[in-house]
Amino acid sequence: MNFKPANKRIILLDIVRGLAILGILLINMLFFTTSLQAIQFQLELWPDWWDQTVQSFLDFFVSGKFIAIFSFLFGYGMILMKDSASKSGRQFTPIYTRRLLALLLFGLIHGWFIWYGDILFHYALLGFLLLLFHKRTAKTLLVWACILLLLIPGLMLFSGTDGSYEPNPEWMDQVHQLAAADEATYSSGSWAEIQELRMRDWNSSVVNQIIFYPQILGMFLLGAYFAKKKWFSNITENHSQLLHICLWTGGMGFLFQIVPLLLSLTGTGTTALTDRLEVIQHLLGSPLIGVFYILFIALLIQRKTWMQILNPLAAVGRMAFTNYIMQSVICTFIFYSYGLGWFGQAGPAATTLLALLIFVLQIICSTLWLRYFRMGPLEWVWRGITYLSIPPLKAKKSVKD
């Protein structure tokens, strides 16, 4: 690999971002190939043991963890941009505002015309709230992060709400019919029919995502807190502190994962208690495990062997914006009627294998691209809008040893 990052702090962020791109793709495959109605009402579509096994693995180790990582890195990145602006004598707020407005536009184009499950639109909106915190101290960022991450789980516990529901059979029959209609549209409908359904699903997705806004903003602030503390600037020096946080977040995060699973398997808990713990598992367990993954990788890459193994992820991470959008372009082409029309025909086992294949191709393409260019094409456009200038794209020629 010809590109060489400036320091281990940057390579860590790129590696983690690249891994997050993989994790997000693994989870998004369900949404690329399954009706939103079927997902929302948890219809059992793939009962075979291999699909159930793969889905259980994804639920335990992947679901919610990597979008938490992505959110963490978004907040971390804001502080890095602020520090960079300060060093260069630029005003940070106008720069970051343009960055968010451009992201908002990209998110709308992505959600309206490519794939309804876009997250960029939500990140841009919440980014304006994040901007209010850029001058706050590390302690203030941590306090607000904890408040926001605990807000919804706390409200659920005190209100007695577990988020479960028992739809009547007649309604479920209608859901099956709606899911079948969605599958027919995405797999064999015209562009106009797909576009109409895509907009309808985008509206539903936006409404569904709002409930997670406190969690996303909380992870933004947690990432900003870590950036303020500068723990990743010198991982060796901060090894003890990072190891302590790594063990704590991993222990607590997986405890939240395991308890509801054990109660369900042993039948020792009530349905209401198990359902409530499962929701809290996603809202608290997933963010904690996300932080654990980041810290675990930070400690792991201090070893040369692991740095060499994980280094290919950095190329994907440096082009995370481009790769995220390209995943949607590739997968909608595979599953929608204007491409191969495979919508509804692949279960979790098949889509996971496909996701891994796509990601391997992204590693190869990203590595080749970065041999000749400084950044991904969408990153280049985004940076140009952010700084109101045309940034250099071609990579500097390096002298090979």
Walk me through this protein's architecture:
- The chain is mainly alpha-helical and 401 residues long.
- The chain is 76% helix and 0% strand.
- It is built from 17 helices and no strands.
- Helix 5 packs across helix 17.
- The chain is globular and about 65 Å long.
- The N terminus is likely disordered.
Decide which structural class fits the backbone.
mainly alpha
Our measurement of the CA-to-CA distance between the termini, rounded to an integer number of angstroms, reads 13 Å
Overall spatial form: globular
Q: What's the pLDDT, averaged over the residues?
A: 91
Estimate the strand proportion.
Answer: under 5%
Strand runs, count? 0
**Uncertain spans:** 1-9
Using only CA atoms, what is the Rg? 21 Å
Largest sheet: none
Q: Helical stretch count?
A: 17
- Element string (H = helix, E = strand): HHHHHHHHHHHHHHHHH
- Helical proportion? over 70%
In a nutshell, what does this entry contain?
This protein is an all-alpha fold and 401 residues long.
Descriptive tags:
single chain, 401 residues, mainly alpha, 17 helices, 0% strand, globular, disordered N terminus
Question: Strands, helices and their partners?
Answer:
Blueprint: H1 8-33, H2 36-40, H3 49-61, H4 65-88, H5 92-113, H6 120-131, H7 138-159, H8 169-188, H9 191-210, H10 213-229, H11 239-266, H12 271-300, H13 304-310, H14 312-318, H15 320-335, H16 348-372, H17 377-387
